[in-house]
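Input for the complex:
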Amino acid sequence: MDLSERQLQILQAIITDYVENAEPVGSRSIAKKYDLGVSPATIRNEMSDLEEMGYLTHPHTSAGRVPSDKAYRLYVNDLMKKKNLSAKDKRMINERLVASRDEFDRTIRHAAELLSEITHLASFAMTPAANQETISFIRLLPVDERTLILMIVGDSGNVTNTTLRLNVPYTQESLELLSKNMTVSYKGRTLDDVLKNEIAEDVGSDIEALAQLKGNVMPSFIRTLEDMLNVNLYMEGMTNIFNLPEYTSIDRARDFMELFARKDWFTQKMLARDDGVVVTIGEENDKMKDCTLITATYHVDGKLVGKIGVIGPTRMKYDEITSIMEYLTNNLSESFRLPGDTGDGNAGKDE
Amino acid sequence: MDLSERQLQILQAIITDYVENAEPVGSRSIAKKYDLGVSPATIRNEMSDLEEMGYLTHPHTSAGRVPSDKAYRLYVNDLMKKKNLSAKDKRMINERLVASRDEFDRTIRHAAELLSEITHLASFAMTPAANQETISFIRLLPVDERTLILMIVGDSGNVTNTTLRLNVPYTQESLELLSKNMTVSYKGRTLDDVLKNEIAEDVGSDIEALAQLKGNVMPSFIRTLEDMLNVNLYMEGMTNIFNLPEYTSIDRARDFMELFARKDWFTQKMLARDDGVVVTIGEENDKMKDCTLITATYHVDGKLVGKIGVIGPTRMKYDEITSIMEYLTNNLSESFRLPGDTGDGNAGKDE
DNA sequence: TGTTAGCACTCGACTATCGAGAGTGCTAAT
DNA sequence: ATTAGCACTCTCGATAGTCGAGTGCTAACA
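Predicted:
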């Protein structure tokens, strides 16, 4: 039940046209614009077949055809040719993406901005998920007799700290001892590993003061680890979608915005996606049935993985956008490579 | 050119009615609902005068009257009576606002969520501006021979750190020395003070290695201070405005959203506002001419000042909303009081 | 002099109708 | 298998008519 060559051509033409003009496309205009050497009537017959197979739909009797999710899926999988970036887009990315390994957050947010500007869609970017980050060392710093700072440093330069206040004073020695003690226990282990296995573990110690202090510190330690695992999600260019014809109705626009407001849900959804450029179309997304979501991954030290993506109506320029995202994430990963390449010791210059 | 008692009554009635129903209000309905003891005709005459004075406008000839910005201003300044919180709102705030001094960001975001839920408007909250925060100590921690962490700790428990990589290795001693050296120099001074006065200062030192290290660290030090000064801005409930009749037009909704997208601009605007509950109406805001913005301030240790606010159409329940915000910020400030009251030493429980 | 009833007038909102245009689906001819 | 021809369907925009809410004015009234 494969499609004939001609059917594929027609389908492709319809998709191209519809993506361009956002209006149901008729047999006549296909025949005129893309010379397939057949008459509108023939095209009509083929269209009817394509509709029966689920590749096209019909807003109403006397309107043209619109590609279905299934059609876009076919297009993305088989029909689409890799598109070369336009010189303008390439230049834009090269010039404007000043990535600094020391400033993930800023860089990532920047990338999302850039992406939404280039694609004219809404974009988002996630800082790397630190699940596979390994602990480099742990330090406890005194502030005053009952207040201290707990600091966890990861091998990729991730640093997270919490200030905590105890009920009872602690001693300087026990603090230093505990720092070393914890560093020895956890060094080289991943956050995931520690969080899963450590919580229940009993903390024995010869020294009474140390055991007590550790008992007080552990809850914060766990909370801080969880903090480290939290990814930040940045969203940009949401208002771009107002310019698209599919969102001129206030209701659709509202739905779209409400979806985005559920950041936590969205984050979970994103984390679950595979590596590389992933496209999910319409019904393939359980909510947002009329959106397409394209994500791509970038890497930090080849270990941590962050995501960046765009979201828009199913009608979008798949070829262009996937190319842009591939290029962009390659650039990002390049910038986030292991230190040494960069050479520059001090803070990167500002934007 | 003061308003007569009756004019005030009529104006108040119009405002009340319009705020409630979002529709231009006519003389007849005023006469019926609020018995002022006069006929619609009389009210019409007064309305005409009020319009001439700029308190009312007229969408078109045969429509009712709508309060102008000037009318709302009069209402807020003179007419409005302080409203007691509804039991429901009070309970909601008491129960749901779990404030923890250790987790500003989470608490603040939570407060914004709550506020938008109660008011059915868009809300935002800013973490405290740290301008007046004083430095408690500065610490440099070794990671590897060329990598180190710079950590600045403020007196209110603010901790910020940066990882930096040097071109050349440093020695352990110079690192410790510089830590102490910097702490001595900056302890007790406000961030503002240090940023303004320190940058140009020459860093002399007897020891060659120390001077060199300090030269390498200073740019990061300044950048980290700037980081500490950055406030976070959280926005919540933006989609609430879609339910308001003034935003059924896609264009207005778009304008509103675009305004919010300019976070940096918005932050600047907010920082410039006075303490306490501040209401700016329509034209009083240079952009967003048809919005009202209400902000209120909360305090941390009576020193740092954060802001929380709502934004919506000029037509809003000023009395209710200002009361809610007053109550909410009082609660927040209470929770963020100096340590010692709270008693609880460990991490607060999760939500 | 302030208040009120009465009335003509205005304007937007809604509804109905109509024609134009685009596009289909079917049939019959090639 | 392809195509031309044609009737049919449906949307969209324009036009017109009606209804109702509300004003502004005038004249009468207390």
